[in-house]
Amino acid sequence: MKRSVLFLVTLxxxxxxxxxxxxxxxxxxFENTGGQAKWEALQGLKMTAKLNMQGMDxxxxxxxxxxxxxxxxxxxxxxQFHQEVFDGTxxxxxxxxxxxAEKSDAETTENFKANLGGDFASPFxxxxxxxFKVELMGKETMEGSEVFKVKLTKKPIKVDGKETENVEFYYxxxxxxxxxxxxxxxxxxxxxxxxLQNKMSDYQEVNGLMFPxxxxxxxxxxxxxxxxxxxxxxxxxKVEASVFAFPASGN
Length: 251
What we know:
Helix content: 10-25%
Low-confidence stretches: 5-20
Oligomer: single chain
Number of strands: 13
Mean pLDDT: 90
Number of helices: 3
Distance between the termini: 68 Å
Structural class: alpha+beta
Order of helices and strands: HHEEEEEEHEEEEEEE
Strand order of the largest sheet: 6-5-4-3-2-1-13-12-11-10-9-8-7
């Protein structure tokens, strides 16, 4: 009995140590990127960027607000595309076949609302209040540098009506404690099961906060991908509600 109790105490102590360790990593991350208070005070971001697709640089604008409203806009050969636009109620985007605004299906919208605002600024900011769970998976070597692998479990999503675990993995550079890569698995669609990687680099300071100015999204183990190079970031912009609204001419 004493041995069982000792084993349980040891196991609990290890779990607590792990939790403390991952929280220390996140504390250093926020400290090195401007301080948690500054991140908590952030109300919105407006980003100007270029999306590199098959060797072409396409003008791109992105807006993210703390209340969950967001918008991505891309220009291509005179055509205007909107992606993952949320006005507070409706999630919509441009159908590339019809070039008309189209509302997302009910399940996609429900999943978006389930984690509303969870990714703004950082999914790790006050993660416990968001109902997220964070675990340290260990230390690895990536492209010659040591990284901490952190598992982030967000609120569950629904896939074909069934509740499904919503997990992402983040790799933090062990020297400066900023994330340099994230991974997530596509749960539905033609590419279901594909692991998407987002490589983050070129961190720069804007109004006392550090942001990655280069992000490359690609399928894990596959060549190519799409790179977003940010040219400017505006902190706490004044944005009209009409920017997010579903067009009256839409479906």
